Amino acid sequence: MSSPSTAQSLPASASEEPAITIRNITKMFKRHKSHEGILALRDVSLDIGKNKFVSLVGPSGCGKTTLLRMLNGLIRPDEGEILVNGQPPAPGPHMGFVFQSFRLLPWRTVHENVAYPLQLNGMDKAEIHERVMRYLDMVGLRKFAESYPTELSGGMKQRVALARALVAEPDILLMDEPFAALDAQTREFMQFELMKIWHQRKAVVVFVTHSVDEAVLLSDEIVMLRPRPGQVSEVLTVDLPHPRWDYDARARPEFVELRRHLWESIKEMVAADPQSEFFNREGKTERSAAED
Ligand SMILES: Nc1ncnc2c1ncn2[C@@H]1O[C@H](COP(=O)(O)OP(=O)(O)O)[C@@H](O)[C@H]1O
Ligand SMILES: [Mg+2]
Predict the structure, then answer these.
(1) Residue 147 within any structural domain of the chain
(2) Can you tell me the distance from the alpha carbon of 70 to that of 56, in angstroms, rounded to the nearest whole number?
(3) What residue ranges of the chain have pLDDT lower than 70?
(4) Where are the alpha helices (DSSP H) in 64-208?
(5) Predicted local confidence at residue 193, as pLDDT
(6) Could you report the per-residue pLDDT of 51-72, keeping only the tens digit for each?
(7) Are residues 280 and 140 located together in one domain of the fold?
(8) What does the pLDDT read at residue 37?
(9) If you measure from the C-alpha of residue 164 to the centroid of ligand 2, how many angstroms do you get, rounded to a whole number?
(10) Residue ranges around ligand 1 (CB below 6 Å)
(11) Count of domains in the chain?
(12) Does 255 lie in the same domain as 122?
């Protein structure tokens, strides 16, 4: 061992190496017309294992999106280090990104939207077509290949966005509240769709959600962040067996207990945050707070 200081923070064998290593990340955003910045993340460290489905949850403004954008290499930390498969993060075909807003190109058909990342990679036409159709099949949209985004429902658009993120076969999939814009029923279908796709084609998924229910249903691990400054508050393991569409996971006592714990913790954080509109309102349930 030539370097005991680095060896300490690394796992014992190469096979156990995490896919994503986040070490002591700090990120400050500058504010217009103010000398004071916003400390979006402070000293965040996290390991994400290969093929794990990990959710980031926590109140608004706790740095979930900032962390996700750093994993993609879109923004850089001020301090600390991120390694994705041993390399500094950079956007590329090994990484897929799905946003809350679908961000489809309206002048391109479904097929052309999904083909886009492969065209950027310079893949030949026949191979692109085969791949696009395979992934449209996977998300149940083969018949809509020649439709335009405006002809599709919200859930269908989100499935196109999912196919586009998967088509280059990334081993890392980053999703920022991908189902937040969908109605409750479509959202539930999409959750099951995602579980099935992930089961077929394992990848690391880092999934940001406001919904603790969704986090428990989908994840192997849940990382709870606290706001101002954004910090890791807790990392929880979800022990429910996969695949979870085979049984009523939500009825399991482990599910109910985890959801309760997460929701109680978020409520406490929000009530303790002077910048939240729900400051000092502990004791209120979600419903009574929303009805005010
Ligand atoms: N580009 C930016 N410029 C200035 N402040 C930002 C920027 N992006 C995020 N922030 C601030 O950083 C904090 C974390 O934001 P974000 O990562 O979007 O939180 P979340 O996704 O958990 O709601 C918030 O206080 C937000 O206002
Ligand atoms: Mg966000």
Answers:
(1) yes
(2) 14
(3) 1-16, 282-292
(4) 64-71, 110-120, 125-138, 154-166, 184-200
(5) 86
(6) 999 999 999 999 999 999 999 9
(7) no
(8) 86
(9) 21
(10) 29, 38, 40, 60-66, 230
(11) 2
(12) no
Question: Measured in angstroms, how far is the CA atom of residue 9 from the centroid of ligand 1?
Answer: 29
How high is the pLDDT of residue 292?
A: 43
Residues 137-171: pLDDT tens digits? 988 899 999 999 999 998 899 999 999 999 988 99
Helix ranges, the chain (H): 4-9, 64-71, 110-120, 125-138, 154-166, 184-200, 212-218, 253-271, 286-291
Where a domain ends, among 154, 169, 184?
A: 169
Give the global pTM: 0.87
Cα atoms found within 13 Å of the Cα of residue 192, Cβ hemisphere only: 12
Burial of 43 (0-12, 13-18, 19+ CB in 10 A): middle
State percent of the chain over pLDDT 90. 65
| Residue indicated by tokens 């590329």 | 92
Residue nearest to ligand 1 atom 11, measured at CA: 40
pLDDT of residue 164: 94
Domain assignment present for 99: no
pLDDT at 25: 96
Token pair, residue 234, equals 């807790």
Q: List, in sequence order, every beta strand (DSSP E) within 49-103.
A: 53-57, 79-84, 95-98
Residue 174 φ then ψ, to 5°: -110, 125
List the CATH number of the domain containing 188: 3.40.50.300
Shared domain for 66 and 42, answered yes or no, is: yes
Residue 142 sits at φ, ψ, to 5 deg, of: -50, -40
Closest ligand 1 atom to 68 CA? 17
For residue 59, which ligand has an atom nearest its CA? Answer: 1
* Backbone CA torsion sign across 171, 121, 137, 158: positive
Given this model, what pLDDT does residue 282 score? 56
